[in-house]
Amino acid sequence: MFSLTVEYAFRAIVTLASRNGLAATAKDIATVTQSPPNYVSKVMQTLVEGKLVTARRGPNGGFQLARPPEQITLLDVVNAVDPIQRVRTCPLNLPEHSKKLCPLHQVLDDTLANIETSLAAHSIAQLMTQPPAAITPFQLTISAKKSRT
Fold it and tell me: What are the structural domain ranges in the chain?
């Protein structure tokens, strides 16, 4: 249902949340999340543009969450990298559907609205405290050494 970009963004955000404010490089994040380093670099830049992550260069640099994990929802992450495309008009451009969606497309849009509501109801912090979070690769530790972007 969600793109690979969203999956990598979720992994990166949860990894940064587990760092308790310590910066991590894209390489660190890629290692912990078992994700391709080049892809992670692009995802991280998108998360910076979406104002969910900050980036700092230099010996103590790296990526950090832009706000506490309690204030970042799953929907925030999705919207930053690959927003859900709601059904606003008939995809077939049928004139008889110009004022109201047909039953099929209305059900599809209602489903997408429910997904948005569900994602908005869950913060990253909640994911960090619910089992089986303790066994996911997101909880692997990464070196606390000084990182560079």
Answer: 4-139
19: exposed, middle or buried (C-beta count within 10 Å: 0-12, 13-18, 19+)? buried
Residue 26: name the closest of 56, 49, 2 by CA. Answer: 56
Distance CA 129, CA 123 (A): 10
User: For residue 62, is it left (φ>0), alpha (ψ between -120 and 50) or beta?
Assistant: left
Low-confidence ranges of the chain (pLDDT < 50): 133-149
Rounded to whole angstroms, how far apart are CA atoms 21 and 68? 9
* Cβ pair 142, 19 in contact under 8 A: yes
Q: How many residues are there in the chain?
A: 149
Q: What's the one-letter identity of residue 147?
A: S
CATH architecture for the domain at 4-139 = Orthogonal Bundle (1.10)
Measured between alpha carbons, how far apart are the two ends of the chain, in Å? 31
Residue-wise pLDDT for 84-116, tens only, equals: 999 888 777 778 777 788 888 889 999 999 999
Distance separating alpha carbons of residues 84 and 99, to the nearest angstrom:
22
Does residue 132 sit in helix, strand or coil? coil
